[in-house]
Fold this protein.
Amino acid sequence: MADAIRAEERRKQHRTAAWALPVAAAPSAIVAYLAADVTDWRVGSAGFIIFMTAVLRRVYRSKGNSWATGAAGERRTRRILAPLIWFGLGRWAVLHDRQIPRSRANLDHLVIGCSGPSYVDTKSWGSKSSKVRIDARGSLWYGRYPQQRAVATVLWEAQRAADVLGHPVRPIIAVHHAVIPRGGLVSGGVTIVQASELRRYLRSLPKEPGWNRRRIRGAARLASERLHPAA
C-alpha cells in the first residue's frame, strides 16, 4: 500500500513537472539573460540553475503518508527481531507481514519462541515530546490521543493468530520514536514496549512448558501455511 501511494504521488509530480518547469524556465531564463548583460554570464547561469533546482525540489518533495511511515517502522522492527533468528539456535521463529484469513488486515510480526507465541504490532509515533501513558482507568494515551482502538485491534489480531496456532498468543505493541517508560506499559492485556527494547523483552519472558525447538518449528510451519504473506 505504501508503494502504491508513493507511485501515485510520483505520477502526479511528473504531471506537475511537465507544465511547471517550462513555466518557471521562461521568466528565469529572461532574468538570467538580463543579469548576464549587467554583470557576467556565469552569474546569470548560476542563478538560473539555482532557481530551477529549487523548483524541481519543490515539485518532487515527498508529502509522506501514514502507510509509508508504518512500513518504515515495520522494517525497523524486522531488523530488531532478526538477531533472534541469527543467534537463536532454532529457539526462535519469526514471520513478518502475514495476511489474516478472510480479512484485509495483516499481522505485522509473529514471534514464536520458548515462551510460546507472541504477536508484535509496530507503531511509529513520531513525536518524542508526546507522552505515552496509562490513565487511571487503564486506557492507553499517546499525547492527547486515546489509543484504545489500537489496543482493541491488536487484541483482535493476536486472537486471529491464536485461532491459527491453537494456542494463546501474547499481544505486544512495539513503539518507535515516542518514549515508553522503562519496563513498558500494560493496557487491556496488551504490553507496550519501546521498539529498541523489544528483543530484550522477548528474551526475558518466562519459558512455557513444551515449547522446545521441535514445537517451535511445527508452529512456525503451521503459521506459514495458514497465514500467507500479505500482497
Summary: Residues 128 and 178 are 4 Å apart (CA to CA). The helical segments are 2-38, 41-59, 66-87, 148-165, 198-204, 213-226. The beta strands are 92-99, 106-113, 116-125, 132-134, 140-142, 145-146, 170-177, 185-187, 190-194. The two ends are 9 Å apart (CA to CA).
